[in-house]
Specification:
With 197 residues, the protein is an all-alpha fold. It has 9 helices and no strands.
């Protein structure tokens, strides 16, 4: 991969992972509700689950959609249902001091698994592979996954830290409640391209 293509890939990865989407909104909400330390499994699940998804998509997972077209509709319905459920959980999260003792952010595996039902993750993975590893060459796929691992880690950390910064402003339960409802609404709104596409 030439330096020019690598730079273009890095710019593409930066633009796609730093913009608001389901992962970033959930990380910000997790940072606000649980703090950075407790959100680390969620953060690392997003940061490294997505590059693994890119590897698997690049190595052939996207062929499933070509072989069996109804899988697009099944993925869309499942994705919308799951994101609506997550939005409901975010909207109804209680302030940390009032939360049940078993309340916790997503685990590493839950966050990594979420990539497979995240519409933005699918469009990013398909776009990145199509643009930067169209030959499906294993080395090119590794470069794409590596770029997303590095840049995605920075993005996940940034959004979680933003949430922890907002946490101080949300010390009053009513403010946190409004924040959680806004985050839930934004999460639902982030599905608009999927619903209209």
């Amino acid at each position: 991969m030439t330096y020019e293509i690598l730079f273009a890939l890095a710019a593409f990865a930066f633009a796609t992972v730093f913009t608001p989407g389901p992962n970033n909104l959930m990380l910000m909400s997790s940072g606000a509700n649980f703090g950075l330390r407790r959100s680390m499994p969620h953060l690392t699940g997003v940061a490294y689950g997505f590059p693994v998804m890119i590897l698997l998509v690049g190595l052939g997972a996207m062929q499933m959609f070509d072989i069996w077209p109804p899988s697009y509709t099944i993925l869309r319905v499942f994705s919308v249902a799951y994101i609506l459920w997550l939005a409901w959980k975010i909207a109804h999260a209680t302030p940390p001091q009032d939360a049940p003792s078993d309340a916790r952010p997503l685990t590493f595996l839950q966050a990594a698994g979420f990539q497979w039902v995240n519409p933005k993750a699918w469009s990013m993975a398909l776009g990145a592979i199509t643009l930067y590893a169209a030959s499906r060459d294993f080395t090119a796929i590794l470069w794409v996954a590596g770029a997303y691992a590095v840049i995605g880690t920075g993005s996940a950390l940034t959004w979680t830290v933003l949430g922890t910064g907002v946490r101080r402003l949300l010390a009053r339960p009513e403010r946190l409640r409004v924040f959680n409802w806004v985050m839930a609404a934004l999460l639902v709104a982030s599905m608009t391209p999927v619903l209209l596409g």
